Amino acid sequence: MNNRTTQTVICFSSPFLLPGFEAPQPAGDYRVDYDEEPLEGAFRLAWRRIAAFIYLPAIAMQGSARQMVPINISDLEAILEKDHQQS
Q1: Whole-number mean pLDDT of the chain?
Q2: What pTM was computed for the model?
Q3: pLDDT single digits (tens) 14-28
Q4: Which positions ≥6 away from 82 have C-beta within 8 Å?
Q5: Range of the domain at 26
């Protein structure tokens, strides 16, 4: 079976710092793509996330060039958790 890519939008209520970047990213909504691979089980099909890519800058930022940046899934989850604890 083939891998798939799913898209979602995540919201940061505070500025956040991505690993490998010197300046924080502004609060806002960001598109994230997840690459997933199938996990074949006896009863149903499940998917495991194997890669994540975040689009910079935030969706609402006008006039800026967009770039897709790979991010470690555990780093992204930690940044999101920290953001939710601060809000």
Answers
A1: 91
A2: 0.87
A3: 999 999 999 999 999
A4: 16
A5: 4-86
* Tokens found for residue 43: 């009863």
Instruction: Report whether pLDDT(5) > 80.
Output: yes
> 13 and 87 in contact (C-beta within 8 Å)?
yes
The tally of domains found in the chain comes to 1
| pLDDT for position 62 | 79
CA distance 58 to 69: 12
Residue with tokens 């500025």: 15
Question: Which tokens belong to 64?
Answer: 């800026």
The terminus-to-terminus CA distance of the chain in angstroms comes to 40
What the block records as the tokens of 12 is: 């940061």
- Give the three-class secondary structure for 12: strand
